[in-house]
Design brief:
Layout (H helix, E strand, L loop, with lengths): L2 H7 L3 E4 L8 H12 L3 E4 L6 H18 L2 E5 L2 H6 L4 E4 L6 H10 L5 E6 L2 H10 L3 E4 L17 H9 L4 E4 L7 H7 L4 E3 L1 H4 L4 H19 L1
Parallel strand pairs: 1-2, 1-8, 2-3, 3-4, 4-5, 5-6, 6-7, 7-8
Helix pairs in contact: 2-3, 2-10, 8-10
Length: 220
């Protein structure tokens, strides 16, 4: 299957890991997230050596392929290439898009590029840079991005009207407020704590995905 088609067929519930260091539970949680209904898992970590990150990334790649779902690595294009991920996701202060694309092309990869944006101007700039999708947020306040003020639901409306590439809303989204996000125009939502801080990642992902599917039927 075409890589872009594969990734965007699964562009619905996008789960971002919450890893502050190596743990035997990480791989199990990722597997549960996929089984519960997450279409994409992004590996976002801190406190890992490169060797540990590659080892974990290779294992997640195997799990993602077993489930036929997408796998994205945050920030590190070198790690993403090493583990043959489906995509790499960069932030506003990470490596420039042109550099990331050059690295990908140099190794003959078809890996996709996503970029975080926090305003309409940043979203439009990312689109001009030729990224494959953007993240929009944080929609609500979230401890995972304490230095960023919430952008609110209005930015979803603006991006929906202006952009012609896929986008995923992220930041403080959970079961009790995701209806506002979908109603505002987001066709994909990203969550961190709502899955990876839950007592049962499978049940959390399943609950979110079932609600997501119902909401999309109402608002599409």
């Amino acid at each position: 299957m075409n890589l872009k088609k594969k990734l965007f067929e699964n562009f619905n519930l996008y789960a971002v890991t919450l890893c502050d260091g190596p743990s035997p539970d990480i791989l199990s949680q990722v597997d549960k997230a996929y089984r519960g209904g997450a279409g994409i898992v992004q590996l976002r970590t801190s406190g890992f050596t490169d060797r540990e990150l590659i080892r974990l990334g290779l294992k997640i790649r195997q799990v993602s392929r077993h489930h036929g779902k997408g796998f994205v690595v945050n920030n590190r294009v070198d790690i993403a290439l090493a583990v043959d991920a489906d995509g790499v996701h960069i932030g506003q202060n990470d490596a420039p898009v042109d550099f990331v694309r050059e690295c990908i092309q140099k190794y003959g990869s078809l890996m996709l590029i996503g970029k975080s944006t926090h305003s309409l101007e940043q979203a439009e700039a990312a689109q001009e840079e030729g990224v494959d999708y953007i993240g929009v947020g944080p929609i609500f306040a979230t401890p995972t991005k304490p230095d960023y003020s919430p952008v609110g639901l209005e930015l979803i409306h603006q991006v929906k009207r202006k952009m012609h590439i896929p986008f995923v809303a992220i930041g403080g989204i959970h079961e009790l407020n995701m209806d506002q996000v979908i109603e505002a125009g987001a066709s994909a939502i990203a969550v961190v704590r709502a899955i990876f801080s839950a007592p049962d990642a499978f049940l959390a992902a399943k609950t979110l995905r079932e609600k997501y599917d119902k909401l999309r039927l109402n608002y599409v």
